[in-house]
Write a structure and sequence with these properties.
This protein is mainly alpha-helical and about 60 residues long. The chain is built from one helix and no strands. It has a domain of about 40 residues. The chain is rod-shaped, with a radius of gyration of 26 Å.
Length: about 60
């Protein structure tokens, strides 16, 4: 019975560390995705501008 009493806070601490690790990983993953999406958005914007210039040049 004493083992359970001493072991439970340890298990609770391990769960806390586990969830903390998941939270940090999720924040890191979100940051990586946000920065890569920004690069994709910038390259898409350049592409759209080039297509836009081509369309306007053809229509004149």
């Amino acid at each position: 019975m004493n083992m359970l009493g001493y072991g439970f806070p340890l298990v609770g601490g391990l769960f806390f560390l586990f969830y903390l690790g998941i939270m940090i990983y999720m924040i890191y993953l979100f940051h990586v995705l946000a920065t890569s999406n920004k690069k994709i958005a910038e390259s898409m914007e350049i592409l759209v501008n080039k297509i836009d210039k081509l369309i306007h040049r053809d229509s004149q």
